[in-house]
Amino acid sequence: MRKKLELWFESWSVYYERLRVAHVLMFALLLILLGCLACSSKANEPAPKLGDPVVSTTPVAPVALPTEVTKETKNPLTDLAAASAKGKPLFEQNCVFCHGATGASEGAFEPKPPTLNAGDVPQDPDGEIFLTIKNGKGKSMPAQKRLTDEQIWQVTAYVRTLAKK
Predict the structure, then answer these.
(1) Confidence band of 46 (pLDDT split at 50, 70, 90)
(2) In sequence order, which residues have a C-beta less than 8 Å from that of residue 136 and are 6 or more positions away?
(3) Domain span at residue 17?
């Protein structure tokens, strides 16, 4: 009986070893197939050439920005509608988190910042809004050092439109 049991265990271990080798080979084959599928996917194909970027044909005269801005400085950008349109995406990238999309302080920041569409801000002069954006205010309003002066004037023009909505 003991000999039969030993033979059975020995045959089982050989079977188990063959089964284990088969599983390893199947897993390796699966990895190779997945690698081939990943390399042949559409995501690896180059995007079609869409053409050259569109260049505006509207002539835009360069605006001489003031070198020194005071609270009473008026927005030097002459086309405020175009400036506001350019200021909107800048506002969305830099200001919405705290001030919210409409400027009503519906952002995630606590304590809530001043609303931009009501209260004192709509009555503030352009220069004061510009300086607040550029230099920050207090500890919670960071200075926007990444924006150029022209971009800050564009955001100022957009903030003006929030009070009219």
Answers:
(1) low
(2) 142, 143, 144
(3) 2-41
CA distance 12 to 161: 81
Domain count, the chain: 2
The answer as to whether 7 is a domain residue is: yes
Does the pTM surpass 0.90? The reply is no
Instruction: Round to whole Å and give the CA distance between 41 and 32.
Output: 15
The answer, yes or no, to whether residue 56 has pLDDT greater than 70, is no
What number of residues does the chain have? Answer: 165
10 Å Cβ neighbour count for 84? 21
Report which residue type is found at 128: E
Angstrom distance (rounded) from CA 116 to CA 89: 16
Give whole-number Cα distances, 73 to 53, 123, 124, 139, in Å.
36, 14, 11, 24
